[in-house]
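## retry 2 of 3
previous attempt timed out at serialization; input unchanged, resubmitting
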Amino acid sequence: MEVLEMKNLYREETGLYYRRNFTGLAVIALPIKTIEVPLNFNIEVSSMGCKNFDIELKDKIDYPLLPVLKKLKEYIAYLEKEGKLP
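## retry succeeded, writing output
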């Protein structure tokens, strides 16, 4: 299982400087097929500087959820590190 890309990323403006909300579409390669799943996610920076990721999939998928969320968090952290998020 692998996250191939994130499409249509949109950043929702909030009044909080330490929290960023995003919506988008994740393209995920599963062992049998490739799926596109709409999602919402937040990146919140704690007072200690740690980044917390909260991901919500809008559709149900026919695959175990924990590995998918783990890979999505890794991919979002990579996009954040590279400065590729809007």
